[in-house]
């Protein structure tokens, strides 16, 4: 157990009902706590190394899970269930650990946003290369359904696997934090059960932010679907990093309903319906708008293109039409250049 000057008794009152209100205010007190710590107890490279080792462990574990599932399950079961479960598990655990570094890091002695964004870009690049076609995002699965690329049963199975994967990832990450391997993990273990809402603006604005992030993400995803992975993966990772940097202070910039459900829905500050509006309806509306703008139609709902005209790829030759005036006799020539008219005297 770690001990901090000015935090005596924290490990005791954190789990009692008597000090629930104090625990909710603990994140506001952390800057003052860190200012009272000696430099040797601030964030060191050892703390960062523990988190990086955790990232490698998560990716390796999920790769083993994918490898075993591909050999033990049918291709259909692997594509709809195991692949999505492994991808969601990997995404949730990585994002939770990274979010912990983002929230507590600035108070720990120079661990700034630039390092967090660099880790975010690298993590999503690794995710894009290792997911093996999984989306780990309900809006992407619904998009595939609307594009007639997935059946209703397959889409429902993917959504179920994503929910199970993110829920399992949240539980495993909390267990990892409870080991208190570093001072950051000790503090995160204290405040994880009494977290506050990630919505720091009005509900309409928050829903608009999540919808806009989802809209831009899906536009890039649709545009890069046929691109080579060497181009597609960095483009998507850069898009996620930019959107997180831009919108993270408003809503956390999840634009992933499953990830948001596992990490924020249990937090105090907003109701369940508020979270549904922001983290489910907002991203789904953004995906729908991006698909309509890119395609011009929604194949699952209607085939008529509302935005773009369909031009035929075959050119129809133009026919030259000659109009003769009344009273004019057409002159026809026989073969050999002789005229049909009789010679005049």
Automatic annotation (TrEMBL):
Localization terms from the record: Membrane
Keyword field contains Transcription regulation: no
Keywords, alphabetical: Membrane, Repeat, Transmembrane, Transmembrane helix, Transport
Membrane topology: Multi-pass membrane protein
InterPro entries reported for this sequence: AQP11/12_channel, Aquaporin-like, Aquaporin_12, MIP
Superkingdom field: Eukaryota
Main localization category: membrane
Protein name: Aquaporin-12-like
Lineage: Eukaryota, Metazoa, Chordata, Craniata, Vertebrata
Gene transcribed to yield this protein: LOC113989914
């Amino acid at each position: 157990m770690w001990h901090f000057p000015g935090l005596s008794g924290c490990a005791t009152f954190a789990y009692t009902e008597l000090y629930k209100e104090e625990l909710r205010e603990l994140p506001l007190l952390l800057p003052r706590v860190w200012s009272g710590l000696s430099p040797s107890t601030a964030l060191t490279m050892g703390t960062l190394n523990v988190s990086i080792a955790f990232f490698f462990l998560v990716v390796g574990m999920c790769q083993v899970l994918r490898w075993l599932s591909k050999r033990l399950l049918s291709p259909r079961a692997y594509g709809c269930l195991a692949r999505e479960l492994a991808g969601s598990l990997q995404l949730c655990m990585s994002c939770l650990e990274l979010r912990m570094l983002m929230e507590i890091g600035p108070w720990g002695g120079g661990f700034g946003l630039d390092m967090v964004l660099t880790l975010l870009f690298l993590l999503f690049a690794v995710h894009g290369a290792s997911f093996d076609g999984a989306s780990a995002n309900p809006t992407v699965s619904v998009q595939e359904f609307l594009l007639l690329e997935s059946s209703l049963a397959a889409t429902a199975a993917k959504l179920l696997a994503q929910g199970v994967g993110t829920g399992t990832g949240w539980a495993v990450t909390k267990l990892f934090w409870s080991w208190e391997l570093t001072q950051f993990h000790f503090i995160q273990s204290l405040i994880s059960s009494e977290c506050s809402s990630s919505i720091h603006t009005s509900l309409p604005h928050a829903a608009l932010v999540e919808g806009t992030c989802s809209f831009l993400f899906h536009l890039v995803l649709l545009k890069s679907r046929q691109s080579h992975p060497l181009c597609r993966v960095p483009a998507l990772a850069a898009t996620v990093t930019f959107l997180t940097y831009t919108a993270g202070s408003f809503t956390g910039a999840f634009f992933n309903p499953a990830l948001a459900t596992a990490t924020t829905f249990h937090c105090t500050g907003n109701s369940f319906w508020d979270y549904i509006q922001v983290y489910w309806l907002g991203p789904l509306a953004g995906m729908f708008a991006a698909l309509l703008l890119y395609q011009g139609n929604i194949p699952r709902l209607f085939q008529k293109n509302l935005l773009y005209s369909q031009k035929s790829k075959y050119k129809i030759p133009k026919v030259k039409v000659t109009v003769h005036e009344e009273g004019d006799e057409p002159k026809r020539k026989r073969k050999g250049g002789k005229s049909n008219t009789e010679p005049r005297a």
